[in-house]
Amino acid sequence: MKLPDEDLPDLTLPGLHAAPLPPPTGVRESAEHSVPDREEQSQPGMPVRVPEEKALAQELLVGRSLRPLKRKRPSRWRSELDERATAAALAETWLPDVVMRPVRERWLDLVLVVDDGISMLLWQRLTADIQTTLQRLGAFRLLRVYGLDSTGPGEPMLRGRPFDPTSAPLSPSLSADPSGRTLVLVLSDGMGAAWRQGRMHPVLARWARCGPTALVHTLPAGLWDSSGIQADRWQVTTRHPGAANSRWLTADQILPPDLAEFPGTPVPVLEPTAEALRDWARLLTSPGTTVGLPLLGPARLRTLMAPSRGERRGRLHDHNPRTPHELAELPADASYEEIRAYTTRSTGGLEVLAHAATHSTASPAYADEYRRIMAMTARHYPVVLSDWTGSRISRGTQTVLAHTDRLVLCCTNSEYSVEAAVRQLGELRADGWERVADEAVVVCTALGGIDHLMDEHTVRATFATSARVVVIVPFDLHLAGPRERDLSRLRPRAAEAFAKLAQELLVGAP
Q1: Which one of 77, 264, 307, 375 has the fewest CB atoms closer than 10 angstroms to its CB?
Q2: What is the pLDDT of residues 316-333, one digit of tens each?
Q3: Nearest in space to 440 (alpha carbons), one of 467, 419, 401
Q4: Nearest Cα to 142, choosing from 169, 113, 106, 171?
Q5: Within the chain, which residues score under 50 in pLDDT?
C-alpha cells in the first residue's frame, strides 16, 4: 500500500481528532511510523491578539478633520537663539551680541473631561478611541484627562482618573485657565442628574468664559432630546483664533437679531464624526469664519400633561392605553422610570400621562386619584399641565382648581369665544376661586376668513379687568389643523407670542 506523500499534511495526527485513530489497515506499525502520544505532540502556544472593531467610526477622517488645530504660536516664557538675526547684527555692528527669539510651540493645552457615570460604560471604548486620536494628532502641548461625576446631588466634581471611583474628587475650576490657552473637551451621554437638572450648565459656562470649550455627545443627534443635553443650531462667528466661547458672535438662522438672542454662553454640542468636528475646528482656527453649529441650550424643564376630568379619547394622539386609575395604584414614592411607563413623549418633549383615559361621568374616587397623581408626579416634574375642556365647574373641576397655580384660558378672537372666556372667569370668582382668576393668563388665537372677529386692541380691553396677562397669537396657517406643532415653522410674530407665553408660565417655576 502506498504511504501518504510527505509534502501533504498528516491528517492522522491525534491533535486533529477527538481521539487517536487506529493505524491504517495493511500497514505494519513500527517504531518509525508509530502514532505519537498527545503529550509528545503538544507544544507551548503563543498568545495572538485579535484586533477589536473601532468604536470611533472613520478614525482617520476624524484625525484629518482636526488638523487645523495643529497651530503654533510664540512662547511667552521660552526663547532660543536666532542665528540669522545674530549673524546680521554682528555684520552690521561688529559687536558679539546674541539675538534671541521666542520658541514656536503648540498653541493650546487640552483638558479631556470624560463623564464616567454608569451609563457611560457603554461608551468607554469610544472615549478611549477619541483620546488616542487626540494624542496622535500632536496638536497640543499637554493633554490631561479627568473623570466627571454628574450623578451626585451637589455641584459636579472632577476625578483624577475617569472610571475610577477611588480617585480623589477635584474642583471643576481646575480646568478653567485664565490665560485662555486651554481647550476643554467634554465627552458625555447627558444621562446624569446634573445634566437633566441644569447643574452642568454653569460649570461649562465658567470654562467657556476662559477658553475654547466644546461638548461631544456620544449619542446620535436624533436621540439628544431624550438626554439632558439638548441643542439648537445657530450661526457662530469668531474674530480671533482660539478665542473663548464668550467672545463668539451668535445669530439665529432665521430670525433677526432683535427677536432671537442666544441665552448665556455658547457651547457647541458635537457628534463624534469627521464632518461635525471639521466645522468646529475651522471655526476655532479661522478668524471671521461663520459656521452653523448646534449650541447647548438651557436645561429644559421636564413637563407633564396630567389627565383631567372630562378628557375625551382621541383628543391627543393615543400611544399608551394605561389609565390614571392604574397610575394611582403606584406607591407614593414611585420613581421617574416607573411613572414614565405610563406616559407618552411627544416630539416637542412634552410627556402626556394616560391620555386615553375617560372620565365622562362623575366618579367618587376621581378626586382622590387626582390628588395622589399630583403628589406623586410633583417630585419629578417641575411643571405639570392639566387639560380642562369643560365649561361647567363640577366636583372633579374643583379638585383640579385646588391644585392649580396658574390658569391658562384659551379662546379665539371671535366675539362668542371672547365673551365665553370672560363669563368663565366671572364664574370662577363667583365660586370662590378669585386667586385662580386673578392670576389667569388668557391666550387668544387669531382666526382668519370669518366674520365677527375682534381686533387686538378690543380683545385686550375686554380682558383688562378680568385677567392678569393677555397673549395674542397672530393668525398662522401652521396652527390650523389637528397636527403636531413645529415652532420653527411659525412666523416670527407667532413664535414671539409663544415665547412670551412660556415666559409667563415659568414665572415662579423651580
Answers
A1: 77
A2: 444 566 777 788 888 888
A3: 467
A4: 106
A5: 1-21, 27-32, 308-318, 355-364, 509-510
* Contact (Cβ atoms closer than 8 angstroms) between residue 342 and residue 353: yes
Q: How far is CA 359 from CA 82, 188, 323, 423, 473, in A?
A: 87, 43, 10, 25, 31
Helix axes 366-377, 395-402, angle to 10 degrees: 20
Close Cβ partners of 28 (under 8 Å, ≥ 6 residues apart) = none
Give the pLDDT of residue 380.
Answer: 74
> What backbone phi and psi angles, to 5 degrees, belong to 81?
-70, 130
Nearest to 343 by CA among 311, 393, 307: 307
DSSP 39: H
DSSP code, position 172? G
Cα Rg for the chain, rounded, in angstroms?
34
Return the H-helix or E-strand segment holding 246. Answer: none
In this prediction, residue 135 carries a pLDDT of 93
3-state secondary structure 280-299: HHHHHHCCCCEEEEEEECCC
Q: Cβ neighbours of residue 98 under 8 Å, at least 6 residues apart?
A: 81, 86
How much is the pLDDT for 256? 74
Helices and strands (H and E) in the chain: how many? 15, 19
Give the whole-angstrom CA distance, residue 232 versus residue 499.
15
C-alpha 380: how far from chain center: 19
Residue 396 pLDDT: 61
Question: Contact at 8 Å (CB) between 5 and 28?
Answer: no
Contact (CB, 8 A) for 383 and 507: no
Q: What is the DSSP string of 131-152?
A: HHHHHHHT-EEEEEEEEEE-SS
Phi, psi of 109 (to 5 degrees): -95, 165
Tell which residue, 457, 371, 373, 363, has the closest CA to residue 418: 457
pLDDT digits (tens, 9 = 90+) for 445-481: 888 766 678 888 999 999 988 888 899 988 877 676 5
Phi, psi of 362 (to 5 degrees): -65, 140
Task: Report yes or no: 314 and 358 within 8 Å, Cβ to Cβ.
Answer: no
Alpha carbon distance 243, 416 (integer Å): 58
Cross-strand bridge partners of residue 453:
414
Dist. CA 218–CA 417, nearest whole Å: 49
Q: What pLDDT shows up at residue 268?
A: 96
Quick one: pLDDT at residue 210?
A: 93
CA distance 505 to 341: 26
* Torsion sign (Cα): 92, 95, 96, 100: negative
b/e code 366-380 from CB counts within 10 Å (16+ = b): bbebbebbbebbeeb
Contact 301, 509 (CB under 8 A): yes
Reference 236, options 299, 182, 294; nearest CA is 294
Tell me, what's the pLDDT at 357? 41
